[in-house]
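From the shared-data thread, chain only:
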Amino acid sequence: MKTLRDLKDLDGRRVLVRVDFNVPLDSDGAITDDARIRAALPTIDELRRRGARLVLVSHLGRPKDREPSLSLRPAADRLAELTGADVTLAPAVVGDDVRAFADNLAPGDILMLENVRYEPGETKNDPDLAAELASLADVYVNDAFGTAHRAHASTEGVARLLGEHAAGLLLEREVSILTSLLSDPARPLVAVLGGAKVADKIAVIERFLELADAVLIGGAMGFPFLAAEGHSVGASLCADEDVALAGRLLAADEDSKLRLPVDLVAASSASADADPVAIEGVDVPDGLMGLDIGPRTAASFASQIAGAGTVFWNGPMGMFELSQFAAGTRAVAEAVAAAPGVTVVGGGDSAAAVNLFGLADEVTHVSTGGGAALELIEGKALPGVEALA
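Structure, as tokens:
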């Protein structure tokens, strides 16, 4: 994979930079978390320092058409605040008007294209769209790890059309940290996995059963494992498909690496006004649903994390968005932040949790790409990375 160090003279040259500014917005269109924009700043600053003329491309949400509510205007404004630069938002993704803006850039200037998913050819990796994007620049840099597992026009197609291409500093760091976690982790390696469905993460669990010394299972994903062991799960999220998969994983766990909850917090509904019910064991009564791991489980998981040489965490331990069901996720987040070894938070809700609890700066690395991180761990090739070879 080529990196910024492989790019030579950039002074005055136009560089198309794929960034991931898919940031959350509130009902008024204001950014509620700018972490992904801030994560791209080292690459943007380095390219500007080297005199490049920058054309940024990103998606936002999943627009069905050119929905004004999914314009990148808030991201452009926030980037201007963070960099102190004039950031121009193009009127579209491609076209003559956009090309005129790109042609008129001065060294250090920043042009942000509109939401690339306004173009239906983006997710289809349309060669015509890739060619139009390529016509806007001399060099391509991909710094959007969160989309590196997608073969889209702005992540894969354009990279193959521009002979000079490289990974940005964020993408390089993501790939380096995650691959080293798999190839040469400090021991013991502890994986903490949560979330909703076993089916979504079965390949990751199987990989960690091979590589890790312990695999801690929490969140809704724990209930299929408990059901497979014969426990009652009440109204907890638990699909039959997931129970079968969990049973297969338990049978394959010859070294007893899987660690499951030993107590739970439940409620009659997953709502803000629901009263939490402590369950001493793991059998959930009818009419209740498990919504968090209990305090004994949290303490046990925290102890395992504290003794780890390397920790990988992906997936919350419960419905942490509701304060009465956040204790388990908070305990894991605090344990990961305090752990003396290498600590990697694998994006998604886990990243949201460490940000919510103010702990993001206390872990080794918070990935900006949950799906991409998991696919890399599974051993899959990432099209956006492969195109930078």
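The first helix runs from residue 35 to 39.
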